[in-house]
């Protein structure tokens, strides 16, 4: 039970930490769409101002590109910076998937050990079957708690995985607009 309690606290910690991190690093879908529109209309100055005025990982990468920090190979720079940013976004999500798998197993382990204790009472006090029922009920609590922890971890993992996918889609939209603009300028 103590391991399950530790797992539930860890899930809570990861959920809060990731929510704060994503809140600071996610520029939002509206930013990506506005940036894409500005680049499509060949308004690089407005797109640059938009990136400078926004917060998050994507606007920071775009600002570095506009400031010339990308060097001659912008595509390689974008891939490298995107990889670093996505790795930061994925940080600790793996632990949630481990807890989703591990929590029910810990609950079952608690149930089995509780059942063993309950049946050992029967061996000691033969003929007292009523003593088992309390032990069985107590043992099943471990399984229920393990399932609750797993469900919570699964929900948190699914939420942040979906949010990560949306951020990646926004990044691809902005970078494709940059690439299209670079191709048009190169002609």
Molecular structure report:
- The protein is mostly helical and about 190 residues long.
- The protein has one domain.
- The chain is built from seven helices and no strands.
- The protein has helices at about 1-25, 30-40, 45-55, 55-65, 75-90, 95-125, 130-185.
- Helix 4 packs antiparallel against helix 5.
- The termini are far apart.
- It is a multi-pass membrane protein.
- One of its GO terms (biological process) is protein import.
- Belongs to the exbB/tolQ family.
- This is MotA/TolQ/ExbB proton channel family protein.
- InterPro entries: ExbB/TolQ_transport, MotA_ExbB_proton_chnl.
Q: What is the secondary structure topology, with strand pairs?
A:
Blueprint: H1 2-25, H2 29-40, H3 44-53, H4 57-66, H5 74-90, H6 93-124, H7 130-186
Instruction: Assign an overall shape.
Output: rod-shaped
Distance between the termini: 66 Å
Largest sheet: none
Which stretches of 5+ consecutive residues score pLDDT under 50?
none
Return the string of H and E elements: HHHHHHH
**Percent in helix:** over 70%
Q: Please count the beta strands (DSSP E, at least 2 residues each).
A: 0
Provide a count of the helices: 7
Number of separate domains: 1
| Average of per-residue pLDDT values | 88
Characterize this entry briefly.
This protein has 187 residues and is mostly helical. The chain has one domain (2-186).
